[in-house]
Design goal:
Nucleotidyltransferase, domain 5, alpha+beta, 14% strand, single chain
């Protein structure tokens, strides 16, 4: 067996039931003992008779490890949640709601909600990228020629009817990606200044949206794809383009469709697998990182479908 992963059998041996899952989640979210998610106090928290329930005497609230997390008010047992996280971090291109429903024994509708809650936990890292940053954009959506006649926009080809996604990949480090309304210069420059540390080196293609980045804040090198150039020394955008390759295979081959409304969560999912969910890390370390991201990320069904 690989030293960097564990099998499904080993996961079930470690977390065989919902009580073991509760203990595991509490150890990750409350390493120093139970902390009230309402008033953030852990000094006056006591156990009550029900296993896994706690009372905070500071604010008089009763809470569990689910409170204030993506698991809140879910009827899905915690061991099934842990298994769903395991499947999402180990599936290179993701797992569909239909497949997840079969794996953990819930309805497809519930599995769809579970997956979106899990994706909600994948975002939120605000640390800036630094060093050499490869930047590129892509478009997610069906081709006009493949659409039903009543759904065609009839406004041309290429990016028509698709959602733009901007990606930034730190050489040897993290990836940040997000949907953007458009890829004009103002939008692209604002995103770069928000996510990239001053003094970094930017590698992009020849698109006009990247013009004007070389100066006071960044060093900027461009690759001219239209002239057949894909690498010049260490100047390249191949790494960020490989991110798009995996993402598109996942969206088209596993999920089949990602609406603009939910696209940001799908993008966060793929970025998480490249960062904290990187296959170079042990599966348990990836799972720990996933659990750490579930706190303060509650997503209600009403907000999801609004």
């Amino acid at each position: 067996m690989s030293k960097s992963t564990i099998s499904t059998y080993e996961l079930f041996r470690r977390i065989p039931d919902k009580e073991a899952a509760r203990v595991y989640l509490e150890s990750r979210l409350w390493p120093n003992g139970p902390v009230c998610p309402i008033c953030k106090s852990g000094e006056r928290v006591v156990n009550i008779k029900l296993v896994g329930f706690y009372r905070c005497h500071a604010c008089r609230e009763v809470f569990t490890v689910r409170t204030g997390t993506i698991f809140e008010r879910s009827h899905v047992p915690l061991n099934k949640w842990v298994y769903a996280m395991y499947l999402l971090v180990t599936a290179r291109k993701g797992i569909s709601s239909l497949q997840l429903s079969k794996e953990i024994g819930i309805t497809q509708k519930s599995a769809w909600f579970v997956l979106h809650r899990l994706r909600e936990a994948c975002g939120g890292d605000l640390a800036k990228l630094s060093g050499t940053i490869e930047i590129d954009e892509t478009y997610i959506g069906g081709k006009e020629v493949n659409k039903h006649e009543r759904k065609k926009l009839k406004a041309g080809r290429g990016a028509v009817g698709k959602s733009a996604v901007l990606g930034l990949r730190e050489r040897g480090g993290r990836t940040v990606a997000m949907p953007v309304e458009n890829v004009d210069m103002d939008t692209v420059h604002r995103a770069i200044h928000k996510h990239v540390a001053v003094g970094s080196t930017l590698h992009t293609d020849e698109a006009s949206a990247y013009n004007g980045l070389d100066g006071l804040f960044f060093q900027h090198d461009q690759i001219n794809h239209s002239a057949g150039e894909y690498a010049r020394g260490d100047v390249t955008t191949n790494s960020i383009e490989s991110v798009w390759a995996v993402m598109k295979r996942g969206i088209h081959g596993v999920y089949h469709h990602a609406s603009p409304k939910h696209l940001a969560r799908y993008v966060d999912e793929f970025a998480f697998r490249l960062n904290d969910g990187n296959v170079k890390r042990h599966t348990l370390a990836r799972l720990d990182s996933f659990v750490d991201g579930t706190a303060r990320k509650r997503l209600t069904y009403a907000r999801l479908i609004a």
